[in-house]
Write a structure and sequence with these properties.
Layout (H helix, E strand, L loop, with lengths): L6 H6 L4 H14 L6 H12 L6 H11 L2 H6 L2 H5 L6 H22 L8 H12 L6 E7 L5 E9 L9 H11 L3 E7 L9 H16 L3 E9 L2 E4 L7
Parallel strand pairs: 3-4
Antiparallel strand pairs: 1-2, 1-3, 4-5
Length: 235
């Protein structure tokens, strides 16, 4: 009884008990490095549903949504449609996603956005790549390119987000911004800018130029990567 349990108690333990302990031991030893997505998801789900074997559910979720990121970013109603998922387990997944996005956001706020460009892109991808509808985010910078505000201005449909140029200008002036970066996502996964994206960006740039505010870039985020207007010569 080295673990304090009698032989009878050990026999009555669920079959997955030892497996779950081995997962915890591996996680402690490696910090999760090298563990497959479904095992990390299994450990997470076990915190919300401690008295069930989570391995089959974790594998089903990965199969359906493609990756760990795809699972925690999926819409709650889609997660609830999977047999075995309930409000508690969905909440656990959403807390992890919110924590991941917050961690990345805190790495870029009040810092030089241009000097920490890769980290800024990591944050935008985490926050937007898996959104089911288009979302338009404005990143406002001061004269030293320090990120002073990060705001979602609009949410649209699966293939369109309205942008009101007057509102962009008004908000930039309210914040005393010297520059800004537009970021929006393509739920289709393809980050290639559309003709509408290009026309809208030109309108914003023209309006900002008139009041001495720079438009540094417009970045389109997709699940298959990102596209920078400046890198493509569109700005």
């Amino acid at each position: 009884m080295a673990d304090g349990l009698s032989d009878t108690q050990k026999a009555l333990r669920p079959h997955y008990h030892g497996h779950r302990q081995r997962l915890r031991d591996r996680f402690r030893a490696t910090g999760g490095e090298g563990m497959p997505d479904y095992e990390l998801l299994e450990m997470l789900l076990a915190q919300a549903i401690p008295r069930r074997d989570m391995k089959p559910l974790a594998k089903e979720l990965i199969d359906r949504f493609g990756s760990f990121a795809g699972v925690i970013s999926a819409a709650p109603e889609r997660l609830l449609a999977v047999s075995g998922m309930g409000e508690t387990s969905v909440a656990a997944l959403k807390v992890v996603r919110a924590a991941a996005v917050l961690l990345l956001k805190q790495e870029v706020m009040n810092r030089d956005a241009i000097g920490s460009w890769d980290r800024l892109l990591d944050y935008c991808r985490a926050a937007m790549a898996h959104e089911p509808v288009e979302q338009l985010r404005l990143l406002f910078l001061d004269r030293k390119n320090v990120l002073i505000a990060d705001e979602v201005q609009q949410r649209g449909t699966v293939d369109h987000t309205p942008l009101y140029v007057r509102e962009v200008v008004k908000r930039a002036l309210e914040l005393g911004a010297s520059a800004l970066i537009i970021v929006h996502n393509h739920p289709s996964g393809d980050p290639t800018p559309s003709r509408g994206d290009i026309e809208m960006t030109g309108q914003v740039k023209d309006a900002l130029d008139k009041i001495g505010i720079a438009l540094h870039d417009h970045v389109v985020i997709g699940r298959r990567g990102h596209e920078s207007f400046r890198a493509k010569g569109l700005l």
